[in-house]
UniProtKB/TrEMBL annotation:
Keywords, comma-separated and alphabetical: Cell membrane, Membrane, Protein transport, Transmembrane, Transmembrane helix, Transport
Membrane topology: Multi-pass membrane protein
Annotated protein name in UniProt: Conserved uncharacterized protein
One of the record's GO cellular component terms: plasma membrane
A Gene Ontology biological process term: protein import
Amino acid sequence: MQIMAVLKTFIYLIASSLFLPVLLILSCLFVWMLVYSGTFFRLWLERSRLKKQDQNLPEQMMSGRYQNSLPASVTRIVQALESLKGSYDPIPVVNLLRDAEHRMWKSLDPLKIMIRIGPGLGLIGTLIPMGTGLASLGQGDLGQLSQDLVVAFTTTVVGMALGLLAYFYFTIQRRWVEQDIKNMELAAELLTGDTHGHEISET
């Protein structure tokens, strides 16, 4: 029985010690999400100002008039591909495309992490004060119980809000990345030759 009491006390101390770090991390993540929201809307404005991509995009790439139809990140890759135009070695082209694709997908990792840890931290921040609140209820301290419940539910709201916002931004940006990769592969086929394009597709 003494071992059981020691274990219960030890687990309670661990859970209680996690509450302050959880609140701190949630606060930092909320500030980060506000900053990221500004970055997201900047990217959205940049893309909304681009000319609508249609069947003339291949012609624009060949003539060098693609700057107003592609975002800056893709424009830099297309310019790098133009410098390789006429080369019969597909390795630099493949390496350039794979590096760019890796960077694009890697840029979405913070959002993927936020989708999971936001609600998870919110749940932890809910359960810890619920335990102390139930203890206060057993002692008849309703004032402490109400305070613990308020903190518990607000951490849930913050955590879920972070997860929902991260999922929304991730969904939109994933579509942007897929479109950018498609345009980069199109530029590689047009600017470096059909042979390179087939080899890139098969790699």
